[in-house]
Amino acid sequence: MPTLKVHHIGYLVKKIDAAIQAFTKLDYVTMQPTVYDEIRKVHICFMQKDGYVIELIAPASEDSVVSGLIKKCKNSPYHICYESADFDKDYQMLMDNGYASIDAPTPAPALSGRRVVFLMNASMGMIELLGP
Ligand code: NI
After folding, report:
1. Are residues 12 and 72 in contact, defined by beta-carbon separation less than 8 angstroms?
2. From ligand 1's centre to the CA of 25, what distance in Å?
3. pLDDT single digits (tens) 72-128
């Protein structure tokens, strides 16, 4: 299996500013200004604490990629993102090992346009794969 490094934990939130305030009170620090991802129609803010990185994701409209999920999960962590040094190779390797692609690889504006793809595993749920 590929050598993947944990990059961040994705955290669904209903309102991005309220969530940033709440995490700030627990001493999380914002890593960059909040970004609007127009492909996925979500607001994204990365924060860190104790070496852990969290990605806050809030729906920007009713048809955002997380609108359905947030009705089910409310405010909650929902994916771990793994960083890959060889995106195409690791993507294929995951697909050959029981992961199904949820979407096609697309650039992530909140991560300097690096490619990301979401995959589902029957025993583990959703992961995100992040290119170099
Ligand atoms: Ni993510």
Report:
1. no
2. 22
3. 999 999 999 999 999 999 999 999 999 999 999 999 988 999 999 999 999 999 999
Residues contacting residue 6 through CB under 8 Å, at least 6 positions apart:
80, 81, 82, 83
For 29-34, the CB contacts below 8 A with 24+ separation are 32/110
Amino acid letter at 15? K
CB 41 within 8 A of CB 65: yes
Please give the distance, rounded to the nearest whole angstrom, from the Cα atom of residue 2 to the centre of ligand 1. 19
Whether this model's pTM surpasses 0.85: yes
19 CA distance to ligand 1 middle (Å) = 16
